[in-house]
Amino acid sequence: MTAISDLDTPRDRLHAARAAHLWLALLLVVVSLASLAWGASGTSLWAALAKLARGEPLTQLEAVILWDIRAPRLALGICVGASLAVSGAVMQGLFRNPLADPGLVGVSAGAGLGAIIAIVLGAALPVWLVEITGNALVPVAAFMGGWASTMVLYRVATRGGRTSVATMLLAGIALGALAGAVSGVLVYIADDSQLRDLTFWGLGSLAGATWAKTLVAAPLIALSLGAAMTLGDGLNGLAMGEATAHHIGIPVQRMKNIAILTVAGATGAAVAVSGGIGFIGIVVPHLLRLATGPDHRTLLINSALLGASLLLVADVISRTIIAPAELPIGIVTAVLGAPVFLWILLRRRTMMEL
Amino acid sequence: MLTARNISVTLGHAQVLAHVDFTARAGQLTAIVGPNGSGKTTLLRALTGDVDYSGTVLLNGTDTQGQRPWQLAAQRAVLPQATTMAFPFTVIEVVRIGLTNGTAATHDSRAMQALRRVGLAHYANRFYQELSGGEQQRVQLARVLCQVWAPVEDGAPRWLLLDEPVASLDIGHQLEVMEIARGFARSGGGVVAVMHDLNLTALYADEVAMLAGGRLLAHGTPADVLTDATLSDAYGCALRVNTAPQAGHTFILPHAANLMTENWSAS
Lengths: 354, 267
Ligand SMILES: Nc1ncnc2c1ncn2[C@@H]1O[C@H](COP(=O)(O)OP(=O)(O)OP(=O)(O)O)[C@@H](O)[C@H]1O
Ligand SMILES: [Mg+2]
Hints:
Chain B: InterPro entries: AAA+_ATPase (IPR003593), ABC_transporter-like_ATP-bd (IPR003439), ABC_transporter-like_CS (IPR017871), P-loop_NTPase (IPR027417). The structure holds 2 protein chains of 2 kinds. By secondary structure, chain A is an all-alpha fold. Chain A has a domain at 4-101 and 208-353: ABC transporter involved in vitamin B12 uptake, BtuC, CATH 1.10.3470.10. Chain A contains 15 helices and 2 strands. Chain A has helices at 13-37, 45-54, 60-95, 107-121, 127-133, 137-157, 165-189, 192-202, 211-228, 232-238, 242-247, 252-274, 280-292, 296-320, 329-347, and strands spanning 158-159, 162-163. In chain A, α1 (13-37) packs antiparallel against α3 (60-95), α4 runs antiparallel to α8 (192-202) and α14 (296-320) crosses α15. Chain B is built from 10 helices and 14 strands. The longest helix of chain B is centred in the C-terminal third of the chain and has 16 residues, at 171-186. The radius of gyration of chain B is 19 Å and the shape is globular. The N and C termini of chain B lie far apart (41 Å). Residues 11-12, 14, 16, 34, 36-42 of chain B line the site of adenosine-5'-triphosphate.
């Protein structure tokens, strides 16, 4: 053996990854404060905070901007960013491939189709059903759409426990095109107010954030992310293939079902409230794998924290860079994310099994 | 005891295994041998429950089919013929995955011990994907050893099921790995290994099951199974067994085949 001898005790990336929980949580706090403080209007959080500290009341304008505009937007941004990043990490673990991402492989498109169907055909539903489902109709429909497309994708791209990257990406394109076509038809039959809803939604933005919206999406997202956090050991095992995962004691089928439902739930809810925001799901887990390794027990939590922070940063950029106008956040994440995606492709060209 | 009764497996339209009976005892190394495509891997996959089969598999007296994955994982570990990792895990991280099913926190040093056992302790921080095929196979062996560390637990033997554990190794590491397997058996555990190397089989196996064409051709001690007639029948070429001068172990010398070929084809 001619290998260079390393230290006898292994360098522990697991400790680093656990320490990162704390650092990333801190980062999220800082970014959250910044996101509350910065905005198109001149209202400064710092001045407001100082006022609160001195016991002076806020002006009504300050209260409205902070509490009714920026705070729900912050909460929604955290939910959406964490959802997208964790969905990416879970899908990559499930497909055993770092390029799997809900946006790229058609899950977001499926969820989007669900949302569009709910917006356009929702009017045709019986009144009592609309009353029961209320605001939840669009997120639930998006969840169903995301779930259906994840299932189809997994069936098509995975044979005998191995996933073909080529098939996965091509199936994603097909799903995306199909969803786009059906959406197009629906847009034709939509009336004016629905059309406005659709356009607004399709831009991919946190601009429409309200507490009502946040409170509808948050439970589905919390449930999905909570379930995702239990997948760490399972996804680690799955990295060696389904048979080996089973040999080390993982109930593979159940684990895969949870993973698919998780992705559908988190992506569906995120897409329903924010439209299609891409690349967070690829960039965040990839950076974390580079920094602290691929161990999913820590990767999932860190993805949630970093995903939330990154989306908030993108949101701040989107609403300040051309203020008082607002750039759709999807553009910002694409500009940040597409180069990283290409970089992964270039680096991994030999291992892609295309 | 690991007992398989009347195992038949159909994959696609082909019957790959037909009515195979197989027994392995704790404290012994049982080898499964046979030509390519004879169903060795399939038999192992039936024993681990990875493939649908008819018949019964009893692990330490309990039918494996009703058991949960983690119950099985506590009793047996499986080394596949080759394992690819999807993400850039380091060697030590791969070995630690073997601790998933147990009380990981208390046995973390076990991973290093297992690596030392396969002679790869100095590779702990290297990336698994950057190792050679043989090194990867030894890392996987360390992972498997981590999973069933104690050969006997609560009075019940634990099992190592190995699919061609030495196929990609050099001769020194072949012997090292076979020693590890035998050591596990000598301490009371059970070992089932699919083998291609008949000499190593003769040297290390306590029992041999010979498959050919999806059927069990012979099952017994190496001396009983590895005979001229059985081997020639199974592998479809002339083979002659011999005994090494000192230890008295059987060995098979392919060179001798030339001498017999004419007789063989004549008969
Ligand atoms: N998924 C499958 N579908 C159909 N036939 C299969 C499948 N897997 C294996 N077989 C067939 O079953 C037979 C036995 O295969 P198996 O892998 O058990 O052989 P083996 O004894 O392990 O061979 P080797 O020495 O080459 O590893 C072969 O003829 C093979 O072609
Ligand atoms: Mg085989």
